[in-house]
Design a protein that fits this description.
Blueprint: H1 5-26, E1 38-41, E2 45-48, H2 49-61, E3 65-80, E4 86-100, E5 103-118, E6 121-128
Antiparallel strand pairs: 1-2, 3-4, 4-5, 5-6
Protein name: Nuclear transport factor 2 family protein
Length: 134
């Protein structure tokens, strides 16, 4: 029986996106497991994972908690390249309530997580997510 590589890659990307989003809502340190060692930003700017982790800690540190997190995945796409590499993305909408000192505000909007396939693993290489900014 032949394996269907399209289904497996798509499932891997979606599962990684779901783990990232759920970790975001929990402000969890596990979010870093989904990140690539470097990020590729517009203009071909490359920054290290450590800078992204520091940025995430700063964002999470501004709030007491996030509650009511919800998301819908609208599209998933990927392309396999030579030498076992690939590029892909997951996009949709997400929202949550950001709580700070018993006051809350709703943070919501579209998201797009960009992925790269290296060494058999899909890792996030760029983040567009409500509440996140470089």
């Amino acid at each position: 029986m032949q394996e269907n590589p399209t289904f497996n890659h798509q499932a891997d990307i979606v599962n990684s996106a779901i783990r990232f989003i759920n970790s975001w809502f929990k402000q969890s340190k596990l979010i870093t497991e989904e990140l690539n060692d470097f990020f590729i930003l517009p203009g071909r700017k490359i920054i290290g994972k450590d800078i992204i982790i520091s940025r995430l800690k700063g964002i999470f540190g501004k709030s007491d908690e996030y509650v009511g997190g919800r998301y819908d995945i609208i599209d998933v796409n990927f392309e396999l390249l030579n030498d076992g590499k690939g590029l892909g993305f997951v996009e949709g909408v997400a929202g949550y309530r950001d709580i700070l000192k018993k006051q809350s505000k709703i943070v919501s909007g579209p998201f797009k997580l960009y992925f790269a396939l290296q060494n058999g693993n899909w890792k996030i290489v760029n983040i567009e997510f409500p509440g996140f900014a470089y």
